[in-house]
Amino acid sequence: MTLSDVSDAAARISDIYAGKYGIARDDDWFLLKLQEELGELAQAHLRLSSRGRGEATEQQRADEAADVLCQLLLYFRRFGIDPEEAVRRKWLRWLEPQGEPADPALSRLLP
Predict the structure, then answer these.
(1) pTM metric for this prediction
(2) Tell me: the pLDDT tens digits for 17-70?
(3) How many angstroms from the chain centroid is the CA of residue 23?
(4) Are 89 and 81 in contact (CB under 8 A)?
(5) Half-sphere exposure of 83 (CA within 13 A, CB side)
(6) CA separation for the pair 29, 1 (Å, rounded)
(7) In whole angstroms, what is the distance from residue 63 CA to residue 109 CA?
(8) Which of 3, 24, 44, 88 is most solvent-facing, going by the fewest CB within 10 Å?
(9) Among positive and negative, which fits the CA dihedral 30, 11, 65, 17?
């Protein structure tokens, strides 16, 4: 499964969710929903590290991390940001100090 596949699936699921619950997804909703999901991930993390009330499982942490990832992809989609290009431009450029990737295995990720 590619990042694009996950993004497409997340968009379809978000459409179903919004329709079922009558949610109007404006620009603010995408950011606020991402923040909500990040808070739920933080809560699971704190519970697993005995710094939060109640208990959590590794499965719950993984589920919340998946929510954050999918919601972030929806945010990218909403604002027309290509996540792969953004990562190449912002992060992967640091791996090519002389124009060559520092790790040959990463060359397939670079333009």
Answers:
(1) 0.84
(2) 999 999 999 999 999 999 999 999 999 999 999 999 999 999 999 999 999 999
(3) 20
(4) no
(5) 17
(6) 27
(7) 27
(8) 24
(9) positive
Under DSSP, is residue 74 helix (H, G, I), strand (E, B) or coil?
helix
Percent of the chain residues topping a pLDDT of 90: 83
Contacts of 37 (CB under 8 A, 6+ apart): 64, 67, 68, 71
Give the pair of three-digit tokens for residue 80.
């027309």
SS3 state of residue 49: coil
Best CA proximity match to 68, nearest among 48, 40, 45: 40
